[in-house]
Design goal:
This protein is α+β, with helices and mostly antiparallel strands. Helices cover about 20% and strands about 25% of the residues. It comes from Niastella soli.
Amino acid sequence: MKRTHQWGKHHFLYYLLAATLLVGACKKGDPGPQGAKGDKGDTGATGEKGAAGNKGDAGTANVIYSDWLDVSFVSQSGGGFFAQIQEAKVTDDLLSKGEIKVYLNLGTAAEKFVIALPFLSGTTQITPFYEPGLIEMASNANVGTITDQASGSKVQQYRYVLIPGGTHARMDKQINWNNYEEVKNYLGLKD
């Protein structure tokens, strides 16, 4: 029997080429309008409570500072002058782990000129010493608080700053503790 319609490879290739051209000629149309917003889903179940975090480091809120104080120096029998400021918060723990800074305002309350102790200028020196309950200062001059006769304002007032252990060590910003303005700004001290 003779086949009248032969199906050859060349016919198959023509059909394949035609199908490819037909599919390739189709293009995507413009997007249709957006559909309506669906309903809000139900709220999921509350998850388990997480473990409590570690207690944070102490902040500058733990720093203690005094007002500007009037301090009297008394003459010592062996020479020099001596003063004491009683402060119960100067503890063994503070002395072991913390920091104490003492500042002297050589100016007035209105026009401050503040220096950090210990202080040495020319022949004048002032050195602080600490023990539980006390801040002591020794000097070779009488550097106690006085009232300026011309202005009537007090000069040579003292202030101390107590920084508990942990606070100083955690400070990410390095400040110069001998620069009163830096310390005042960093700790938010009020004059």
